[in-house]
């Protein structure tokens, strides 16, 4: 049996305000997919169908959009999705080391989810934070910069407590020098 | 009148012409390679293959005159980059260079092609599209000689069943989105989309949904590579082994223009043929299934009921003799002639003419309409290809054909499967001597007392009047026992027909049906019963119809061929000119 999904009243209200911003419903596809992902944690085919129905759009269109963007999860993920960057800068600064450390620590491989449904690990392409390599992003949200094994231990512990790490502001090196 | 210079040659176009530059170039008999563009759909310009170099003349803002260079020629301001000609709008004085006069353009097209071919499998010898593949043809013409891509190609799913009739080979797809746009703009079912991105994308339906669009097979025709294939036809035959004969779709009232593809006298597939007045480039999937009717369960040799309900095959002489004796032993007023909206104008006319002279006045036909079966594209409620034709010839429409049959002692039926489609029951024919001219074995042939096999649309040249009153004609595509491809000038010859001999192992006699056109049967019958009528080939019959029935005034095979059909309906004629 496939699970059925429904938007709550608040969601529907939010969708109405999103729709009002755009000339067509087609244009509202992306933000409404975000509403859905926030509510259900993923946009599985059943959720894509719900979005299509809500926006009165063809299912195929919503499916095409959802599969185009990697930040929409087309399958169930853990509560926290750890996107470890493994593109050039991070790779050189130990991105794979961090990834493998996480894999060993949580006992899963990249692309998998822990049994308790808490964590998923993904190896991702450049997130545009090469200056603070190696780094990772948590559930399309906070960046954790300048990773070390100790820092990863801390982050995992705080996430288990339900606390997201705080946003770290890292200044431009040049500016810092000038301020001195 | 505005002017445009393409490859140094001057062409004229009307101001406000909304054709894209590519279409204009093609319409003027020149060529620029392209994949994603299709004249009946929007141009997304995503294949980037139709690059041309474009410039506009420089005008002096004060005087409005063209600025001239030192040689006295117009100064041209070239667009900073090459343009995709499919989306370029023509402007007055525009100068265009295609690959024919610009090495830069030729190089750009070659490089685009190299990109397109990076992940495309280069296994044309085992690809179903080979021989009719725009990618293959254009690579030969404009493509690079080899690839510099030495890494492993991206692999994608090979046999995705998108729906009941279409199979996708995702690796071959070049993401032109023609199929997606077809479902969005033409059939409007929105069933297809492109999934993922980068080198992993290919067309697919929404998860859990089928591509069951009633027009789905058109995407196979417009696919410029071998990605979308017909589940039924894939790997059955090579294009160059078949020959292609123009014909008309007989499964609906629209008269969709089609091509029949034959090999060794079997119809292997049916594809739409362009006719802007009728079906554009499209046809419904239902019409493509009709090829089975032309090959399978054909009625071959006449059959007669001798003892009870058991039919046995008989000779042509005996069939004609029985036919004549039946007529002679009954009064003409007891004879009912049932014309057929499924048969051509010529067949119905020949039947009517002979029996009219014999004194019969009871000419009926049963329309074949299924309410709600039509749509606003190409499907019609009318299930027969020639309802208007039978009407114009003077057959009377009968709401209850069973009642008419009960009153008659002799019933003569023309290629209409009345029992199979529920207009009659087998019991209705019990008390009347029924003579049926038929193409296929069916419940109706089982019930008839005398069955005479006649040619189907794939075996004769004959015309049909569609729901809009447009008369169009077919060409013979299959040989019968009595016709010969190399002697009949209306017939096409494929490679195998032309260069093969009767002893080649790909050639059989089995696919030829023992049948003759209905007008030849009428000709023989008329001779036997002493009527002064004779029928030549269908071309002459049409000339006779045109001169004797005012509705068909001016109709001839030559005109139908030149004008792709003639509109007989005066009311729609006026609409067309208004």
Automatic annotation (TrEMBL), chain A:
GO terms for molecular function: 2 iron, 2 sulfur cluster binding; active transmembrane transporter activity; inorganic cation transmembrane transporter activity; metal ion binding; monoatomic cation transmembrane transporter activity; NADH dehydrogenase activity. InterPro entries: NuoE-like, NuoE_dom, NuoE_N, Thioredoxin-like_sf. One of its GO terms (biological process) is inorganic cation transmembrane transport. This is NADH-quinone oxidoreductase subunit E. Belongs to the complex I 24 kDa subunit family. Its cofactor is [2Fe-2S] cluster. The keyword Metal-binding applies. GO terms for cellular component: catalytic complex; membrane protein complex; organelle envelope; organelle membrane. [2Fe-2S] cluster binds at residues 85, 90, 126, 130. Binds 1 [2Fe-2S] cluster. Keywords: 2Fe-2S, Iron, Iron-sulfur, Metal-binding, NAD, Translocase.
TrEMBL record, chain B:
InterPro entries: 2Fe-2S_ferredoxin-like_sf, 2Fe-2S_ferredoxin-type, Mopterin_OxRdtase_4Fe-4S_dom, NADH_UbQ_OxRdtase_75kDa_su_CS, NADH_UbQ_OxRdtase_ferredoxin, NADH_UbQ_OxRdtase_Gsu_4Fe4S-bd, Prok_molybdopt-oxidoreductase. One of its GO terms (biological process) is ATP synthesis coupled electron transport. SUPFAM superfamilies: 2Fe-2S ferredoxin-like, 4Fe-4S ferredoxins, Formate dehydrogenase/DMSO reductase, domains 1-3. Residues 104-143 form the 4Fe-4S His(Cys)3-ligated-type domain. It is found in: Membrane. Keywords: 2Fe-2S, 4Fe-4S, Iron, Iron-sulfur, Membrane, Metal-binding, NAD, Translocase. Belongs to the complex I 75 kDa subunit family. Residues 242-298 form the 4Fe-4S Mo/W bis-MGD-type domain. This is NADH-quinone oxidoreductase subunit G. GO terms for cellular component: membrane. Pfam families: Fer2_4, Fer4_NDSU1, Fer4_Nqo3, NADH-G_4Fe-4S_3. GO terms for molecular function: 2 iron, 2 sulfur cluster binding; 4 iron, 4 sulfur cluster binding; metal ion binding; NADH dehydrogenase (ubiquinone) activity; NADH dehydrogenase activity; quinone binding. Its cofactor is [2Fe-2S] cluster; [4Fe-4S] cluster. CDD domains: fer2.
